[in-house]
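Project channel, design review

CF: Before we commit to the Mesorhizobium denitrificans constructs, I'd like one complete example in the thread so the newer folks can see what an input/output pair looks like. Taking Aspartate aminotransferase family protein.
RD: sounds good, go ahead.
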Amino acid sequence: MTAGISHQKITQLRATEAQTYSAARPKSKAALARGIAHFLDGVPMHWMRDWPMPFPFVVHAAKGAAITDIDGHTLDDFCLGDTGSMFGHSPAPVAKAIRTQANRGLTYMLPSEDALELGNMLSTLFGLPEWQIATTATDANRFALRVARAVTNRDKILVFNGCYHGAVDETMVRIRNGKPINRPGLAGEFRDLTERTRIVEFNDLAALESALSHEDVACVITEPVLTNSCMVLPDPGFHDGLRALTRKYGTLLLIDETHTISSGLGGYTRVHGLLPDLFVLGKPVAGGVPASVWGMTHEVAARWQQDCDGREPGYSGMGTTLSANPLQFAAMRATLSQIMTADNYAHMERGAARLQSGIAAAIEKHALPWHVTRVGARVEFICAPGPLHNGAEAELAHAPDLEAAIQVALINRGTLIAPFHNMMLVSPATTNRQIDRLIANFSDIAQRLAA
Ligand code: PMP
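CF: and here is what came back for Aspartate aminotransferase family protein:
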């Protein structure tokens, strides 16, 4: 049994749904067969292999909260590019900004007037005064960590078990049998990453204090909620404790809002009054155009300036050539001013609450030992009892075969959710009809599994 379901039922569901999926997508299958020859592993980016379907469908177009494949199927999209399109596909103001900028140059390593506006917007919305633009959340985290190490003159960082902050090497650590190890599965990693990365469980303030008490940790990097394993919410008082302990031991606090920006206007940080020293946001910040931002307090900025003054001039190890380009400025300006609005967040929150209660009702109706959790517009069902308290529990809560079977079954019924973590996002474009369809589809699958 896995998560209350027999292996036989899971295997059966997976096989039947895989067959249905393949039979319905001859054009995607043929297109992939024609197009794969010169892509490593048959896809332009190997994550596309990690979807649970027998092969990925080829997209014709996506708009709002719908995505259409070349076989003519239109799905309600709750994956939304795994958060990159959290505010819907091609939101009209962003599409317009892109069109306008398209004729004014796409990259020139100089600011535009949009950039001037953007700086003000970032500081008003997120509460931190000094900003930089990068292209991915991975890079923003990398650069922010470099600043943290430079200004504290400490080499270590601390992460929580189960974390994910992009392809940032030094965060790729896990706890196994009580010991820190390199995250299993890393390719080509020959360093022992645990030498400079301490790791403790989320929600464990005692372990955090003992790890920080050596006063050699430059920075704690964390999401406010762990969203990259099965979702783990902070215990009451955890964030206060985290902030107090990092201050006590001279460690900076980096809050990575890349997923928790779903929480509401200004992200979890603003909604819950967190006070980070460094702040990172990627993915949806430019409405789907690759861009990220990272901000810091005046204090960190002043210490950074001091560090710059004391260092030999040369390459800082930060920045990439196409970062802070005018297309990003235009798309971010449009997103921050017209998409990340209180009204849109209110719509998303209402829809996500509806989705959460519908899924919870289906779980209860079919007496499954599962639960559903939510951070603003971000909802996730977990095929294990909850709530979860840390990364170790989250890892055990994963049921990959069962989740894959459910995800393909949902696609065959017209709804796309995120692979890897059963995540469902409600965008400003998502309708109650789409939400109710997802609930009905989930309920139908749950019934089959539970029968
Ligand atoms: N931070 C968090 C919290 C993330 O979830 C992710 C990606 N899932 C990243 C950073 C990295 O984003 P990107 O892949 O766009 O660099």
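RD: helpful, thanks. The chain has a mean pLDDT of 97.
CF: The chain has two domains: 7-87+342-450, 92-339.
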